[in-house]
Predict the 3D structure of the following.
Amino acid sequence: MLDRALQDASYRIVWGSRLTWNRLRYTVWAPAYDALVRAAGFDAARRLSIERLRLAPGDRVLIVGAGTGLDLDFLPPDVRVTAIDVTPAMLKHLERRAAATGRSVTARNMDARALAFPDASFDAVVMHLILAVMPQPERGLREAVRVLRPGGRIGVFDKFLRDEEHASLMRRLLNAFVKPLFSDLNRRLGPLMAGTVLVTERDEPVAFGGAYRVVTLRKPEGSRPADRAVS
């Protein structure tokens, strides 16, 4: 019992410190984030991912890891938007963007691994440039599935290795530098989806030689609500 308690405590410390580091580094990046990401030319990928959600008027949309709100530009004006992020500084930029465009957005500081929403609360979930950044991305994806209604879609835009691909030595060495500062270069989507009910509707390479992909995932009709992700 004591060994298990110590193991659980160390587990919480490790993942809690990674969450704190994410919050710190994105607080630093927040003032320049829009310029950096827009310079990479990701607007077309964001637009494509959101178009494939097939949103209808009145749909409830959750943006996970919403950052400064760059996705807001591509969402229809007649959907209801909730945006979450672990970094308050990023959400302040998002709120200013929403106010400038007259869009109503519910912005909340929240950990994507433990969403404070009931099951099946949303018709669509947007996960852009988050699964390669967050700690325990499999938990974040499971939580997205839980709060998504059966028949709803998740729009993923991120960088992934192909499931059958092995990272080269150079890529692994580069990742040792890039991962603490930016994001993980060596994550695969397939293992993150394992154990969920999600099915892949579309999977398309969009940037940097296919390193970035737009993936549309669907929760089948009749699916039972997913349990809250647990450690």
In short: The radius of gyration is 17 Å.
